Amino acid sequence: MTIDDYRKEINRLDSELLRIFNERAALALKIGEIKKEMNIPVYDPAREKRIFDAMSNDNPGPLENEAIIRLFERVIDESRRLERIRTKGL
Which residue in 16, 40, 58, 86 has its CB near the most CB atoms, within 10 A? Predict the structure, then answer.
């Protein structure tokens, strides 16, 4: 494969990640609505730890677990921020 071939594949994966990130965020918003109705805090550190542990255990590499955790921390932070913004008006 050429550099261009690899870049095309990266672009395809980036598009898929974008779709997945937005799908995940939409689900987080639905959970945020339920949490608001049930008066449950948006932040659930135990849930986040379970996610990080699962991702670390399932990680085949080449990214190190610390890198995977940092990526998921960011995704979760953005989902939590979105939940807070969107559920304020509900």
Answer: 86
Going 65 to 67 to 71 to 74, the CA torsion angle's sign is positive
Describe the crossing of helices 65-87 and 3-38 by its angle, rounded to 10 degrees.
Answer: 50
Compute the distance between CA of residue 1 and CA of residue 33 in angstroms, rounded to an integer: 47
Count up the domains in the chain and report the number: 1
Cα–Cα distance for residue pair 6/73, rounded to 1 Å: 27
Q: Which range of residues forms the domain containing residue 18?
A: 3-87
Total count of residues recorded for the chain: 90
User: Residue-wise pLDDT tens for the chain (90 aa)?
Assistant: 999 999 999 999 999 999 999 999 999 999 989 988 999 988 899 999 999 999 999 999 999 999 999 999 999 999 989 988 887 755
